[in-house]
Amino acid sequence: MKIAVCIKRVPDMESRFRISSDGKVVDETGLKFDMSDFDGYAVEVALQITEKLGQGEVVVVSLGPDAVQEALRKALSMGAARAIHLKADRVPSDGFAIARALASELKSGGFDLIMFGKHAMDTMSGVVGPMTAELLGLPNVSAVSKLDVVQGRGTARRELEGAAEIVEFPLPAVVSIDEGIARPRYPSLKGIMAAKKKPLESKPAQLDAPRLEVTKTELPPDRQGGRIIGEGAAAVPELVRLLQTEAKVL
Amino acid sequence: MANVLVFAETRSGDLRKVALEAVTAGRALADKDGGEVHAVMLGAPGIASKAEQLGRHGADVVLVVEHQALANHSAEVAAATVAARAKAGAYAAVVFSASAQGKDLAPRVAAKLGVPMAADVLSFERTGTGINAKHAGYASKVVQTLTLSAQPAILSVRPGAVAPAATPKSGRVESLAPAMDPGTARVVVKEMVQGRSGKPDLGEAPVVVSGGRGLRAAENFRLVEELADAFGNAAVGCTRAVADDGWRPQSDQIGQTGRTVSPQLYVAVGISGAIQHLAGMRTAKTIVAINRDKEAPIFKVADYGIVGDALEIVPALTAAVREAKKGH
Question: Can you tell me the distance from the alpha carbon of B309 to that of B320, in angstroms, rounded to the nearest whole number?
Answer without folding.
Answer: 17
